[in-house]
Design goal:
Elements: E1 2-7, E2 10-15, E3 19-20, H1 25-35, E4 42-46, E5 52-53, H2 55-68, E6 74-78, E7 84-85
Parallel strand pairs: 2-4, 3-5, 4-6, 5-7
Antiparallel strand pairs: 1-2
Helix pairs in contact: 1-2
Length: about 90
Amino acid sequence: MINIEKRDKINIVTFKTDTINALITDEIRDQIIKIFEASNSKVIIDYTKSKSISFDVIELINDFEQNALTKNIQVEKIIDPTQSFK
């Protein structure tokens, strides 16, 4: 469901499904916790392969993004403007 590619101090997160819903929130949380353990890095979250993203997942990632500021982690999100956020 989630793929993480590491390039130096950059982690690239992509999703392998076109629908990201609350059912996979725990899996996403577990993977993202690992990414955000490293300070002074960059995380790119690529949503472009997903057509629909649940509000629970967006909220989860936004929470991690806020906490990233305290660890000097830069977060970039790539979103397709045609995506649906529910």
